[in-house]
Amino acid sequence: MADIIELLRERLGEASVTLADEIESRHMSDWHVPAEPGTKPVALVRPRTPQEVSAVLAACTETRTPVVPQGGLTGLVGGATAIDGAVLLSLDRMREILELDATAGTITVEAGVPLQAIQEAADAVDLLYPLDIGSRGSCLIGGNVATNAGGNRVLRYGMTRDLVLGMEVVLADGTIVTTLNKMLKNNVGYDLKQFFIGSEGTLGVVTKVVLRLFPKPRSTATALCAFDDFDNVYAFLRRMRAGLADTMSSFEVMWPSFFEAALDKGNHRRPFAGQHAAYVLLEMMGTDPEQDGEHFEAVIGSAIEAGEVSDVVLAQSIGEADRFWAIRDMSGELDGALAPLVAFDISIETGRIAAFLDECERRCRERWSSARMYNFGHLADSNIHMFVTVEERPFPEHEIEQVIYECTQDWGGSISAEIGIGLLKRPYLAYSRSEAEIALMRRVKSALDPLNILNPTKVFEPLDIKLAAE
Questions:
Q1: What are the residue boundaries of the FAD-binding PCMH-type domain, all occurrences included (predicted)?
Q2: Whole-structure pTM value
Q3: CATH number of 338-421
Q4: N or C: which end of the chain has fewer CB within 10 A?
């Protein structure tokens, strides 16, 4: 390994290269998936420019050394987790906001800029960068792009894929491909950026991105609604889509098990006197502060008159809206408080989600009578999150995964709605992708990374990667 170390020091300087024994433990894993015991990377490098990223990848190509790109290390499936013998390529020094064009409604940034910094830069000129996730202060935009991050506003603004206009990416051999397009319309040949968005660092390393900005909302209205029948949730969603149109920014559903656990573990004040079959956190973001609130109340009022909503609390202040969101955002705390559990990020067509969850629960309880499910998520985006726990020990993590992912496959759903595949979901890729799709993915991987140095072992099973590299 001396050759790769010498090359890296020569091209980046010693200060940008950290040897294996000195690498901080936080670089060994992402937020959720630890490295295999005994894993020892050869070095951590922290380039400052795209040219230095290019130099790193060229050196790794010359020496056949694998590379693991890293951002804020907030991922949940092991996409940035270290592997043995690899160079860890951290982009956290590339933190410059290069341009904000208020007329075009774009911001051009380096890959190491935190999401929150982009939000704040847009806000300072009365614009909005709409991507928002809980790790906003520590996740980096390059990681958001590499994982095609979703979040709470997908309903209105789309996934990260829908927010990227252009990018600069470095290929496995060190070639820098710059397509920093700022135009909404650019129909010249292939849309190359789409190869890399959501590719989890397996096809190239993103170094710069051009992002779309939007008019900053002038008003926000929030309501917490309770339902005694889940069919009424679907009716309410249809009514809100028609009545609020594209001002509806969030439609978050919580099932009773999640809602009660969130109230209990978070010591939150109970918003309703009794218990209900489902709860919806509804948010509208508008442009008319004088009329939006009245319209919001009127549309919800029509749902009450139709018998769809059993009870509702309208937020009277930002603080009260924040308290509603705090209940929904208890998912991180519950992940720890209810452990051991298995967390799922599933997509099923919206109108079948409730029935799908009933089937998942039935199958789990056939295997484990103690099975409990805590369900919540972005119903209008067809995305549901599930925590599944059982009392049996040793905890049957992989068996639970098998049950839920088999059910997802049977129902034609996706095993990953917004957090990617990485290491954690790699064994189940074929549950949501056909043989033909996986073969095509391997061909793309082989074309862009023929030596298989970019984030190997991620997304594909090892056998599949070997076949792709041959």
A1: 37-216
A2: 0.93
A3: 3.30.70.2740
A4: C
